[in-house]
């Protein structure tokens, strides 16, 4: 077998299904994409869990230092938290899809504009919600379903919580952007600071000072400020690639952002309305113990399903990049990772949740012989079994959102967020009481999965026979495989073999000999530079993914690596005034290329070089 055959058969790109290195083995398959997936996932999980953490702490303190009714107050307010999450979901969903596509096309300036737009709109909405909370807390409490006994306590909670709405909503967005800038550790520090401050202040305000629901809410508000103030200073440093610029905002972009992100918001809004309806069903058919159990579930469920929602958010982000690049192979591989790795992990999460159901229930209701304890643990056990099904729903729904199936995702959001659980609850609650409402969770998720399947069957007009049909990909999606060359490089030996592969690829497309030589030279030079100066800066195992594309009479070289950030375009510009004998290779590439763009987002260096084929 020739060296060219070895390269073609054994070294795909970042998103290839077969393998990842030039002479790779099974362990190296899909390494870069798998590493990226599981590097993004923990932060996405924390972003999702962030809102639940404060509510869990509040519920625990309320149950132990006030009474079980106070847990119900926090649970009632959780519907308003879902409204905040709904708007945050619009911004996160729309931003991640749009920025992913922009990353796929290499447009970093547009990404910066979306960043500024995101923060501006989020700030405006959070200020409006804060003003409503201060101006009409009684009306807000009535809308949330508080009766005459609970309303005074809920009003106090609303006023205290309002102090921290602005930093909470802004921090949620900033945390997502920090991930694109390889600042995950800062996000972890923010979460730790928020949790520590909330626990300490809850104890001080409630257990020591006896401020009741107001103290609970103020502790959460202050912890939101702590979280925000830990994250935001980074964007005032020189390291930040994304900077807020009011003048850079293109306000019409808000329309596609809302359109793409709307399904996520619609889902959360429907869940908020559903929560109010379910609370009323429980009060009518069962009583306050069931309401308190449901409230405890509402507070803890965000943490329990954080893994599922984090998987969905990661799939959406990476699929958006692949769709921006029109890379069919990447989508295949992402689905393979999701189903072969993330889905089995959800079973482990289920077992963990089941094993901790008793102590978690005790956090809220210490009396293990009480009816409210029994109902709460029963709900936790039933819900934990739903986690793998939720992961499956998240993978499917977020892929469809990234792929642009907006109308169906809107319909799915309404069904999943409201009807899928309310309908079974209405039917089963009069018969089984609280258990009927608890069982509505798995029943509703199965119904949602069946609706997903029905949509795929409707679009294909038959049962899918291939991965492309399951993904609903158009036949003209992306560049044909014959017009792409995938190369994986793990050492200098692999670099030395790229030239032959590129020459053979160009010969097969009748590309001008001179351009063929230039393409091979550029790829070999840049890959060699990465191996020499990036591979040995740490003890991690690194790979380079290189992709050569022939499209519309143009040769496109896209080089990705997971080494330390390095911008060759910026470095080439700085070399203009230096000794011309230095960095000859980099100078040569910048001269040959018709266009050269660099970005470092989500932890990868991405260099795109374009030149005419003739």
Put the structure in a nutshell:
This protein is an alpha+beta fold. The chain has helices at about 5-10, 30-65, 70-105, 110-135, 135-145, 150-160, 165-180, 185-210, 210-230, 255-285, 290-305, 305-325, 330-355, 355-365, 370-385, 385-400, 405-430, 435-460, 465-470, 490-495, 500-510, 515-535, 570-575, 585-590; strands at about 485-490, 545-550, 555-560, 595-600, 605-610.
Describe the structure.
The chain has 614 residues and is α+β, with helices and mostly antiparallel strands. It has two domains: 31-467, no CATH class; 482-612, Histidine kinase-like ATPase, C-terminal domain (Heat Shock Protein 90). Helices cover 71% and strands 6% of the residues. It has 24 helices and five strands. The chain has helices spanning 3-10, 31-65, 68-105, 108-135, 137-143, 151-162, 165-180, 184-208, 212-231, 254-285, 288-304, 306-325, 328-355, 357-364, 371-384, 387-402, 406-432, 434-460, 467-470, 492-496, 498-508, 513-534, 568-574, 584-592, and strands spanning 484-489, 544-551, 554-561, 595-601, 604-612. Strands 1-2-3-5-4 form a five-stranded antiparallel beta sheet. 52% of the residues are buried.
